[in-house]
User: What shape does this take?
Amino acid sequence: MEKTVVGKSYPRLDGPAKALGAAKYVADLKMPNMLYVKVLRSPHPHARIVRIDSSKAAALPGVRAVLSGQDCQAMLGLYLIDRPIFAIDKVRFVGEPVAAVAATSLRLAAQALALIAVEYELLPPVLDLATALAKDAPLVHEKLHEYAHIHNVFFPVPHTNISNHSKIRKGDVNLGFSQSDYVYEATYRVPQMQHVPIEAHGAVAQMDMTGKVTIWSGCQSPNAVRKLAAVAFNLPEGRIRVITPQVGGGFGGKAGIGIEGMVMALAMRVAPYPVRLILEREEVFCGTAVRQGLQATIKTGYTKEGRLLAQEADLIWDGGAYTEYGVNIVRAAAYSSAGPYDIAHLKTDSYCVYTNTPVGGPFRGFGMGELHWALEQQIDAIAAKLGMDPVAIRLQNAVCDGSTNATGEVLVGVGLSKCIEGAARLIGMDATPSERKPNHGKGLACMVKGPSTPGTAASSAFIKINEDGSINVTISSAEIGQGMQTVMAQIAAEELGLSMEMVHINTPDTDYSPYEWQTVASRITYSTGNAVQRAAREARGKLLAMASEKLESPPESLTIVRGVITRRDGIGPATSIKELALGLSLPTGAGRGGPVMGTGYFIPDGIHGMDPETGQTPKVTSHWTFGAQAAEVAVDIETGKVNVLRVSAVYDTGFVLNPLLALGQVEGGIMQGLSVALYEELQLSQGQVKNQSFVDYKIATAAELPEMLVGFVETPLDDGPYGARGFGEHTMVPTAPAIANAIFNAVGVRIVDLPITPEKVLAALRAKPK
Amino acid sequence: MQRKIAFTVNQQQVEMVVDPFERLIDVLRERLDLTGTKEGCGGGECGACTVLLDGESVNSCLVLAVEIDGKAVRTVEGLSHYLELDELQQAFVNEGAIQCGFCTPGMLMSARALLDKNSEPTVADIREAISGNLCRCTGYERIVVAVSKAARPASALT
Assistant: This one.
């Protein structure tokens, strides 16, 4: 049937409210008698807390509560419960919350913080991976072996700093190397970096006098916040309500649970008054989750024709002080470690390593940006060694239908080659050398990613029909800028035969909106989209059943167009969704049926755990999405400065539900990827973040905007709504290696450590053999 | 020392007593509940809090309340005509210039300041005008397109 709403460019539904300044974010909420929170943070990377004296702070007039790890022993964790709300017994990173104050004003709260006396006994800090992995290294977590975690999915190594070791053993890697003509090994590094949502993290919490807690949080995952808070505070989920207004950017930094634990603990002390914590920008840099660092050593065996036969990968992740969420990034990297290539023999060891640095966590791409920084330069370097075309070597090794990936899964519906060819064509990769300007170059990189969720990650949706014939679509996905609300509305409108202006959609409130696992993993279009589609179909079925009675025609003979229900052949009378919204009115004056609702749920089918020793499994994730980007750069050989002139991107998204919003995702991803490539790095000195402001931590501005060329391939996904796949995160994954490859093409130097600063480029140019 | 100040916000006359440490953004958000103006960094580095002060774009987190005495402030709430989006706001919506929306009010005010002075800006002019406004979502391209589109009808009128 012809689609009328999906596949079309509708402006986002939340656009007008955001343009008018009417959209409400958590910092815009103001409640009577609200208390303000300030957090005392550790000045040391690793120290024992000898004593905390908060008596003077508590005695300050206007201070309503002071809490520290002495009063609150609650622990948080998504996959491994290792993170206290306030440091208990010792601090593990500079910026770790030690105590918090709730007072009648922010100024008073700040004054009170200065009155809290903490005595520390310094411990030897673990500030880098080498120290962390050394024999007899100081332990960041002495009780790692006691921490609750998901067994047989994550593998902590007791009495070490390794909180997870994920393995892949596919084929026989020694055989693969012995069959290879050449072996190439290189090491690539990615520093920790910040998500930098323009909205700082914030939450408000209030406990009423019955003990029910409400949390308003600018978070990605209201149900995860509720679940993890319920575990931490030993409360049933039904006694916690999480409301998520508009969220000013997430990128993974607001996934899982963050500062909500602190505000909830304080709210439980000062009931019935609400408490509010909005982080300062410097607290976002040092105190919230960052992208994990990575040191990747890749050894590749290949034939003289350029076929990859074997790969051994050591992926050592800097997980920071707590890895409750980060352990799963390490696992995802292991099972994705072949990248987008068909490699018969694979051995991967992916380690999550504790250090006394900021907490590592999910970041748009969930390890794939870091992994592909290594893999996509590795294959480029091999092409250069063989004198091969970088596009040709990728096409030769790219997975296709019937290929197996790192876990041995047989892939179907793979459109990778079309993405590579498309990105190469858009940027003009095949231009002859004579057309090249000096110190200009082009490079390409491709990528693969699947949603790294538990096999049980669920979505649900609820649709009710209003008296005016409009509908409310109720879900608990967070609108973090990705345009999810608009796409969900399009799906509901398509299924119910409504125009877009007849669809209303909510922001989450766990008391009223149905369950959603998390707004992460590029899974909302796919997973929630399926739930919304099913809910709409259920509502449609009920409407058509009533219409059938009213129009005296079987349901399958009927259709709904712009809310009007008629026979498909146009013969006979009509009714409408509006007329049937509250049930069927019979000519006798009686009624039948009732107000129409539709419900739908979705869990991906057949996700299977990995073999603990080999990582092999028939299906580790719901689906894979492939893409490629190519960059054109100009390198200033006097200064080392890299100017990114153009970037092309082609993704196989299965089906483009909204071209305008899809374009926005890709352009935004390219620019974030460019920013990561050239500028971003958390600069640490003795564990302390030195660049805690936008002056010192540069992100890309409009001044650095390259020309962007975007295309899509549509290889339908069997169980995606209209065939759609997730791709929001994927859009930034290959940008940095594409730029690095373009620099190599331009001036013959390869920068293997992010970011690509002018200093590194200049040093490489000077070291280059003449 | 507290001081009484008088100024206009979106053409409405306002008088209040302010503390010496109070900032313009606090006056707008906390005193007047005009929460359309966003605070992103508190240090004048991200542009989310951009408003117009006597027609010039300023970071409202860097302006002290006492400095606005006798001046005219325009915020994002002052762009629309009652509930109707102006052409710049409409262009932001139509062209996909908005994602999470947190930088949007500041972007709009920087763009407004540009268009008020230059009704036919070049792409370079637009990029320059918004280069002090950080956006982490859109990649800026749609914003540049939106400002260009909004400028065109205005230039056609003159």
About this structure: The radius of gyration of chain A is 27 Å. Chain A has a mean pLDDT of 97.
